[in-house]
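To the wet lab folks,

You asked to see what we're planning to order before we commit. Fair enough. Below is the target structure as tokens, and below that is the sequence we designed to fit it. If anything looks off to you, flag it before the synthesis order goes out.
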């Protein structure tokens, strides 16, 4: 039974719902039209019949017989007035006619039951010589059957011009039911024609709507919208869809959060949402190069934009993106580990050579030389380690610098830590941010030296801690940065080594993000020292934020 009810509900198609709605509208319109028609018919009836009763009353009052006999007429006493009254009623086709004396008492009437009664008060002015035509009450009335009449009262004057009575002629006002009965045939015709037109229009409209909705019924569309919303809320990846004009048509909750968009973003032009130019460019223009990395605020986002086409034309642009900030932090840690691993592998080869040397000296019996050789190696390692650890107490930054110094030495690049450097221990977040800043700036300097084949390449590192901030300075004696490129070095995707698709162009941009997040800034400049030109990167972060 329940299944049958569900089937019956499901059979209420879009066309049947539209037809039902159309019929309801038609019925409502007909009710309103009926009321207006009744009001208009009442006004027309009163206007037309008012002219007729006025004319008949004037004829009755002007009749010589009436003017002669009315002054002496008495109620219920037969006279020639009865014939005059009946004649006027018959000729005019009206419902009643009557004559009253100057006091308003009816002395002659087509309705004998009215003789001797007082005439209606509405036309009392006729007794003073003023004619009156209007709606008069003839008996107890109701809303549907008013029992009123359109009546005219005209004074009767004798030969001397004195008022000797009043001539009254009237037409009974039809009831509402009578007027509805007269209008029913026309209303039924209107209803039939409107129903046919409404049914045909509903069917055609339903077919057009179904073509536009790919054959889905209204309930299916509602279910689809709910499913889409649930899917969007469940996606960890953010989704933004734009129509060809750049208006936002779809936006997931994660996209709101990642881009910091207002709640009313859907339906607005994407260029009016306050987004970065780089983000706008990615959202508006699909790329054949796949994922695109974009820095926005303190987030690193990976965008993928694809065009949606239908019937050979572009109907939308859909962009999915995810937050890569946490992944970048992990990559920074892995880079430190990778650098350390590389340094360890290089040390292993170096240790192998040193062990082979020691083994050969032992085989030659040069034991004193073995001792001096081992002391020299130990002193070199201790000197390298102490140079860093005596000035850098933060273990993460110290380990990074030791690994970078060893890796750079293997590539014939010298990394020197300034004697004035000092760095106390930092929090986990602070240490990670400093590793990101130092690691990227050092790598950038080493790569620049190797890329241009600088003779005697040197990178100088200076880390100074003050009461409220930490200043990092990385200088190299490479070829420097061209003046037009000084303002571009910290832009995302800009690099002299390739494009962002190759993984380049984000190190310095990431440094700027980390510095600004820590309440500092990063800049690049030049200075001349020891007869050489140095390219200097200066970065700072606040200590109170560490």
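Sequence we intend to order:
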């Amino acid at each position: 039974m329940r299944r049958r009810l569900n089937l019956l509900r499901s059979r209420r198609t879009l066309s049947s719902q539209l037809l039902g709605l159309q019929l309801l509208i038609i019925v409502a319109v007909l009710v309103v039209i009926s009321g207006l028609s009744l009001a208009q018919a009442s006004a027309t009836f009163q206007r037309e019949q008012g002219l007729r009763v006025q004319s008949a009353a004037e004829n009755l009052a002007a009749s010589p017989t009436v003017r002669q006999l009315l002054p002496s007429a008495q109620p219920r006493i037969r006279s020639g007035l009865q014939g005059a009254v009946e004649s006027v009623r018959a000729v005019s086709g009206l419902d009643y006619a009557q004559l009253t004396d100057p006091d308003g008492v009816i002395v002659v009437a087509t309705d004998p039951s009215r003789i001797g009664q007082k005439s209606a008060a509405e036309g009392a002015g006729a007794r003073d010589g003023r004619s009156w035509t209007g709606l008069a009450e003839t008996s107890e009335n109701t809303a549907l059957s008013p029992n009123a009449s359109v009546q005219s009262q005209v004074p009767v004057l004798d030969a001397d011009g004195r008022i000797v009575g009043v001539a009254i002629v009237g037409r009974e006002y039809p009831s509402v039911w009578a007027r509805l009965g007269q209008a029913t045939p026309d209303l039924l015709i209107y209803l039939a024609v409107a129903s046919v037109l409404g049914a045909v229009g509903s069917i055609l409209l339903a077919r057009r709507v179904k073509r536009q909705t790919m054959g889905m019924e209204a309930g299916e569309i509602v279910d689809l919208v709910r499913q889409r919303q649930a899917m969007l809320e469940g996606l960890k990846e953010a989704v933004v869809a734009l129509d060809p004009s750049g208006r936002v048509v779809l936006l997931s909750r994660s996209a709101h959060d990642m881009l910091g968009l207002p709640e009313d973003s859907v339906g607005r032009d994407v260029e009016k949402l306050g987004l970065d130019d780089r983000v706008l460019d990615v959202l508006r223009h699909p790329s054949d190069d796949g994922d695109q990395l974009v820095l926005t605020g303190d987030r690193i986002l990976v965008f993928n934009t694809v065009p949606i086409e239908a019937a050979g034309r572009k109907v939308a642009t859909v962009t999915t993106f995810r937050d890569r900030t946490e992944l970048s932090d992990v990559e920074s840690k892995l880079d430190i580990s990778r650098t350390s691993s590389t340094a360890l592998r290089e040390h292993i080869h170096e240790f192998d050579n040193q062990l082979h040397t020691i083994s050969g000296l032992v085989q030659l019996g040069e034991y004193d030389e073995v001792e001096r050789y081992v002391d020299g190696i130990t002193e070199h390692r201790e000197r390298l380690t102490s140079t860093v650890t005596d000035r850098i107490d933060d273990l993460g930054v110290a380990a990074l610098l030791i690994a970078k110094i060893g890796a750079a030495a293997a590539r014939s690049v010298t990394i020197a830590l300034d004697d004035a450097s000092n760095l106390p221990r930092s929090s986990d977040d602070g240490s990670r941010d400093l590793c990101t800043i130092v690691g990227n700036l050092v790598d950038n300097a080493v790569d620049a030296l190797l890329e241009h084949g600088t003779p005697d390449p040197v990178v100088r590192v200076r880390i100074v801690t003050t009461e409220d901030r930490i200043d990092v300075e990385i200088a190299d004696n490479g070829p420097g940065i061209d003046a037009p490129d000084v303002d571009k070095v910290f832009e995302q995707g800009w690099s002299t080594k390739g494009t962002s698709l190759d993984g380049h162009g984000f190190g310095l941009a990431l440094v700027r993000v980390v510095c600004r997040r820590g309440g500092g800034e990063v800049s690049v400049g030049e200075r001349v020292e020891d007869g050489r030109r140095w390219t200097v990167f200066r970065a700072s972060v606040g200590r109170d934020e560490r």
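Structural context that might help your review: The chain has three domains: 14-178, 235-323, 327-545. The radius of gyration is 53 Å.

Thanks,
Computational group
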